[in-house]
Amino acid sequence: MTVTAPRGFRAAGVAAGLKSSGALDVALVVNDGPDATAAGVFTANRVKAAPVLWSQQVLRGGVVRAVVLNSGGANACTGSPGFQDTHATAEHTASALTGSAGRLILGAGDVAVCSTGLIGERLPMDRLLPGVRAAVRGLSRSGGPAAAEAIMTTDSRPKTTVATGSGWMVGGMAKGAGMLAPAMATMLCVLTTDAVAGPEALDAALRAACRVTFDRIDSDGCMSTNDTVLLLASGASGIAPTDLELAAAVTAACHDLAQQLIADAEGATKQIAVDVVGAASEDDAVEVGRAVARNNLVKTALFGNDPNWGRILAAVGTTGAAFEPDAVDVAVNGIWVCRSGAAAEDRSKVDLSGRDVTIRIDLHAGQTSATVWTNDLSHAYVHENSAYST
User: Left if phi > 0, otherwise alpha if psi is -120 to 50, otherwise beta: which for 148?
Assistant: First the structure.
């Protein structure tokens, strides 16, 4: 259930001292080939971290041999020195890998870099670079779990997945527990596959998958500077799936990881699916779902086990979606508390005692549907984020 489940990949996770806790904080994923095709999707935030800018350049060539990731520091808003640190990290990784038993010969342009943690501070390169060397020495086919642990920040547990094809598979790891908002989340994600696929096919599959998974989780309406999702193909299976088969497996892996992210959202006591049906278009359905998912009044009501459907309807009304206010129906955990824009079944029938909540909104404006996933807003979320940098 890791990035090393597909053939052709090794990984490692080590403690380099970037985290004061001494926990694992540097991860490395290496593609031993024979292929090294890749694709990536990055944050839509205009303020992009140095590793995002670097990795975007690397992905233009459609080839990635290695990904080095660190937690304990985002290397965002660090100016040109921060970008130089990212470049140096890639160069150091390439050099260390080229010198390790002669298995690979690569340059800095073959190495993607990802960072996560506090924004605005330089990384301690005197600890990071030795950590990279230690990760190179620790590379193995069984190193996936350690790599997934090393990229955690406020996560309570690592997130990994596997989706199988016919004789080939997709593996993955991700981190993220807050700032989960399109696009995509405060997340780092590395997906691997031993399928034979060119960069164009990988890019199409990854973008299609992100559109209906990572782009539809919305924990707190906040967009990160470091979001990165990478898909690497080794071709080690010798099997070339169809575009549809590849997209299906990548989407399955992304969906699983996205659900793990939202389940581990900071302070969450509820995992909420906002199902919008009867929309005039997919864009309308997503807009409505997103408006409800990031509405603080809705989220706090659900934290208090209060099925306050008026707040849901008010959130729907903030959108530009096509609908008539007196035609909208709303159900919470199967109880239609609102019909035709007015009170319907008794809200006391709604059972919110469990963790899973489903809000179903029927706009009665068309035939399209979409789901956005979110969580409640609790005291613990406020506590955790009130002193993150101190």
Answer: alpha
- Residue 369's nearest CA partner among 274, 231, 252 is 274
CB atoms near residue 208 (< 10 Å): 18
159-190: buried (b, 16+ CB within 10 Å) or exposed (e) per residue?
bbbbbebeebbbbbbbbbbbbbbbbbbbbbbb
Burial class (CB in 10 A: 0-12, 13-18, 19+), 386: exposed
Structure letter (DSSP) for residue 73: B
Task: Return the closest-CA partner of residue 39 out of 57, 62, 7.
Answer: 62
Catalytic option among 186, 192, 193, 225: 186
SS3 category, 170 = strand
Other beta carbons within 10 Å of 134? 17
The pLDDT value given to residue 86: 98
Dump pLDDT digits (tens) for 59-99.
Answer: 999 999 999 999 999 999 999 999 999 999 999 999 999 97
Return the amino acid letter for 356: D
DSSP state of 116: B
167-215 residue pLDDT tens: 999 999 999 866 544 454 468 999 999 999 999 999 999 999 999 999 9
Query: Is 371 known to be catalytic?
Result: no
* Strand spans (E) along the chain: 9-14, 26-31, 37-42, 66-70, 111-115, 159-164, 169-175, 188-193, 228-233, 271-279, 329-332, 335-339, 342-343, 356-362, 368-375
Beta bridge partners of 67: 29, 112
CB–CB of 14/69 below 8 Å?
no
Distance CA(91)–CA(128), nearest Å, equals 13
Measure the CA–CA gap between 41 and 86, rounded to whole angstroms.
Answer: 18
